[in-house]
Amino acid sequence: MTRKKKPTKKYKPRNEFRYNINAKHPNYIFEVDEKNDAWRAIGITHEEKTFGIKNAPLKVNPKKTDKRKSYMRNGVVNGTHYDYSKKTMKNMQFSREDLPNVKAKIRNAKKNRKKTTKK
Q1: How many CA atoms lie within 13 A of 110 on its CB side?
Q2: In this predicted model, what pLDDT tens digit does every residue of 64-106 receive, in sequence order?
Q3: Which value, in Å, is the radius of gyration of the alpha carbons in the chain?
């Protein structure tokens, strides 16, 4: 009698900043599906609005050397590994004050992804 294998997770969690070549902005990558080459990320920008939609302000700029005001884009950026730099950005990290907002955005993005895949 053979046992059924447990299904493996499609998306694997990541915790890294990479430069988005198309958007020319850094992105925080939180999920990667290597089989289908799908990367999910949150965009980081200095603009208050993107495409007419307000961005969520961050209390501290994730780039340690940059003192300008930064924002977290609404929505999730979907892409492939070709859209991002090969190396991670080492000098970027979310502050403790911003982590609850970032984690909430990731949690909501995962919920929305699961809702759309069930339909």
Answers
A1: 14
A2: 898 999 999 988 888 888 998 999 989 999 999 999 999 999 8
A3: 16
Those residues whose C-beta lies under 8 Å from the C-beta of residue 42, and which sit 6 or more positions away, are 27, 28, 30, 72, 73, 76, 77, 102, 105, 106
Return the DSSP state at 103: H
Token pair recorded at residue 6:
């447990």
How many other CB atoms sit within 10 Å of the CB of residue 10? 13
Q: Which two structure tokens, joined as six digits, stand for 42?
A: 């949150």
CB 98 within 8 A of CB 59: yes
Entry pTM: 0.83
